[in-house]
């Protein structure tokens, strides 16, 4: 069946907050604070345990909302207490979750997040309802959401086929697609030409480009290889090493801010949300990367996923990162 004709729209960010649609996972995180990761057979006395709203889709939606965007989230939760708690958290951030489905068979996704005293995390995810997200390319409500959005933001914690369906619809309508291919996996050929902005870490950059991306110079080469696939803008995030941005103007290294990290959970999601909203606001690519770095630096100084994501005012009050360096 042919898709209905849909007009392309312009996004007037001067009169209203930018609109962003996020397709992604919703998890309840069980966060364990531990002195170190236990070895095989070791029983470890932990510091604490907390339940915290998370999931890459939920985190990125919250980051976008706290940076001032009007956000619609597409996802799936179970008909259980965790699902209700996640919806309540989205409501508190003003996020439209009318596109979040409720699964009567599968439970809400859960992530076990172990954070050690060095602020490094180890995460095990049980997908649950996330694995059954469905995107209907003929849904008029979805088309309406995308018509008025500056970006569709997606990751890979929901089925890949559904990400492709949503990206194809967004691209056809004129809504730009920003992809964070995490967990890392190869992209199907039909997805590449649909992408406007690709945000990857060192592992994802290496998998997709076939090049090592552990230093700014290496990340720049990987980013150029990814841009050659037709992507307009690529960001390779390097954690404490900052980020490399690549577009038609070439490659630049944006250094990170020096902070004392206590928990790196959701740092990448925080960066991506801040990046998306700043671009949707009409600011330059470099300004958007710098804003993302500032937001992520604040995130890692706090514990937990969504509780650690800063709002726009906090980011604007924070220190500026060093100037970017051409590569």
Brief synopsis:
The protein is an alpha/beta fold and 327 residues long.
Tell me what the structure shows.
The chain has 327 residues and is an alpha/beta fold. It has one domain (19-25, 54-107, 130-326): UDP-N-acetylmuramoyl-L-alanine:D-glutamate ligase (3-Layer(aba) Sandwich). It is built from nine helices and 14 strands. The protein has helices at 56-66, 81-92, 140-147, 160-173, 202-209, 216-227, 267-280, 285-299, 312-317, and strands at residues 19-23, 27-33, 48-54, 70-78, 96-103, 109-115, 121-126, 151-155, 176-180, 197-201, 233-237, 243-247, 250-254, 325-326. The protein has a ten-stranded mixed sheet with strand order 5-4-1-8-9-10-11-12-13-14, with helices on both faces. Strands 3-2-6-7 form a four-stranded mixed sheet. α1 (56-66) packs across α7 and α7 (267-280) packs antiparallel against α8 (285-299). The chain is globular. It starts with 18 loop residues before the first strand and ends with a strand. Mean pLDDT is 94; it is low at 1-13.
């Amino acid at each position: 069946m042919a898709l209905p004709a849909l007009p392309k729209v312009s996004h007037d960010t001067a009169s209203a907050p930018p609109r962003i649609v996020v397709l992604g996972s919703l998890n309840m995180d069980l966060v364990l604070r531990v002195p170190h990761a236990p070895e095989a057979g070791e029983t470890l006395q932990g510091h604490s345990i907390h339940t915290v709203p998370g999931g890459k889709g939920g985190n990125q939606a919250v980051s976008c909302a706290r940076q001032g965007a009007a956000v619609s989230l597409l996802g799936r939760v179970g008909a259980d207490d965790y699902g209700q708690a996640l919806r309540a958290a989205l409501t508190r951030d003003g996020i439209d979750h009318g596109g979040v489905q409720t699964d009567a068979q599968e439970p809400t996704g859960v992530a076990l997040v172990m954070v050690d005293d060095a602020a490094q995390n180890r995460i095990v995810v049980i997908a649950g309802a996330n694995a059954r997200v469905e995107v209907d390319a003929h849904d008029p409500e979805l088309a309406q959401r995308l018509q008025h959005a500056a970006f569709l933001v997606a990751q890979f914690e929901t089925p890949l086929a559904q990400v492709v369906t949503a990206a194809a619809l967004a691209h056809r309508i004129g809504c730009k697609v920003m992809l964070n291919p995490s967990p890392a996996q190869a992209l199907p050929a039909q997805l590449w030409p649909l992408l406007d902005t690709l945000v990857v870490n060192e592992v994802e950059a290496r998998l997709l480009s076939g090049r090592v991306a552990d230093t700014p110079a290496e990340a720049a080469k990987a980013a150029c290889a990814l841009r050659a696939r037709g992507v307009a803008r690529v960001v390779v995030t390097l954690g404490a090493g900052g980020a490399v941005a690549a577009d038609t103007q070439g490659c630049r290294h944006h250094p990170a801010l020096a902070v004392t990290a206590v928990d790196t959970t959701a740092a990448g999601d925080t960066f991506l949300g801040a990046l998306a909203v700043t671009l949707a606001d009409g600011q330059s690519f470099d300004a958007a990367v710098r804003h993302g770095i500032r937001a992520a630096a604040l995130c890692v100084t706090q514990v937990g996923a969504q509780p650690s994501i800063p709002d726009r005012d906090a980011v604007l009050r924070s220190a500026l990162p060093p100037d970017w360096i051409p590569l």
